[in-house]
Amino acid sequence: MKFEAGFSFFAVLGFLICTDREGTALLCLLSCVLHELGHLAVMCAEKRPPEKIKLYGGGMHIIGG
Q1: Are strands 2-5 and 59-63 parallel, antiparallel or unpaired?
Q2: What SS3 state is found at 64?
Q3: Cβ-Cβ contacts under 8 Å for 2 (sequence gap 6 or more)
Q4: Closest CA relative to residue 7, chosen from 53, 54, 56, 63
Q5: pLDDT digit string (tens) for 1-21?
């Protein structure tokens, strides 16, 4: 399985953290991570693991499976 993280992912992540005045950005990001891990868990449970995971500014793209 390949893993890739593009520049736009880190740019959006940095922007969210730097502009977060209420301290909710990390909680929101954690929620997103848990949500995507749910997709990956189901794919692995169905014995269809992803070929590639790509993080980008708009989220995560799971390829294959």
Answers
A1: unpaired
A2: coil
A3: 51, 52, 53
A4: 56
A5: 899 999 999 999 999 999 999
Long-range contacts of 56-62 (CB under 8 A, 24+ apart): 56/6, 56/8, 56/9, 57/6, 57/8, 57/9, 57/11, 57/12, 58/8, 59/32, 60/36, 62/36
Task: Write out pLDDT tens, residues 30-60.
Answer: 999 999 999 999 999 999 999 999 999 998 9
Q: Rounded to an integer, what distance in angstroms lies between the CA atom of residue 60 and that of residue 58? A: 7
Instruction: Give which of 58, 62, 64, 63 is closest to 6, Cα–Cα.
Output: 58
What is the token pair recorded at 16? 């969210």
Q: Taking the model in full, what pTM does it have? A: 0.78
